Description:
Blueprint: E1 5-9, H1 16-26, E2 37-42, H2 47-53, E3 60-63, H3 80-86, E4 90-93, H4 96-101, H5 106-118, E5 122-129, H6 131-136, H7 139-150, H8 156-159, E6 163-168, H9 180-197, H10 200-205, E7 207-211, H11 219-223, E8 230-233, H12 240-247
The structure holds 1,3-dihydroxyacetonephosphate (13P).
Subunit structure: Homodimer.
Protein name: Triosephosphate isomerase
Catalytic activity: D-glyceraldehyde 3-phosphate = dihydroxyacetone phosphate
Amino acid sequence: MRIPLIAGNWKMNKTVQEARQFIEDIQGQLPAADQVETAIAAPALFLQTMLDANHDDVLKIGAETCYYEDEGAFTGETSPRALHQMGIPYTIVGHSERRRYFNETDDVINRKVQAVFRNGMTPIVCCDETMGRRESGEKIHWVVNQVSAALKGVSAEDAAKIVVAYEPSWAIGSGTTASSDQAEEGCYLIRQTLADIYSDDLANGVRVLYGGSVKPDNIAGLMKNDNVDGVLAGGSSLDEKSFVQLAHYQSL
Ligand SMILES: O=C(CO)COP(=O)(O)O
């Protein structure tokens, strides 16, 4: 049984005060974590404040990225060891914005995945796909390659805990979400890739999310797919009311 995961990615939005207010406001409004798990990935600078405000401890607080070394002379970077020590369970790795604006390569992403596991956290690994690649039919090997590269050298024991998100970049922040069929197709492809690398059993236990313009009015259609186990929402996770609605997608 894969417990659905409704995750938000705040990107570079909000201030520490706004982050605290959001967490205070949603206390008591989320589903039980054994029914629907909820998480918000936020800038490292907010995390301690968010943890402190998260009294009912239902929401998981995650990071948006971290470095692949545990510590050292890497000015400005975030240590995965420090994140783990704070009590952070999830870190997004390989978001398309990191790939595009910060030149993160498959190799860097693979090292980050390993660092996140080494430090006892779970990576939410993002796979991207451009419209050009979709239209040229290149989509399949692009997604397969990203998943394979991210997991190079990762043991089955660790890979069984991973979360993967299919986030077509043409759907991110565009207001155009993938159709329910396109989301299912991308998530299915990721699961098949995991089955090819590891095993059917492992692939069947891993949660695969869809991300790209997910909103309260389209989440139910996306979530009814067999291979879509949750969402990674950007814009609609910034508003308390819409994040709580996403978490209660079953009653929308
Ligand atoms: O990038 C995303 C989540 O990681 C999706 O962002 P939007 O929901 O704003 O399209």
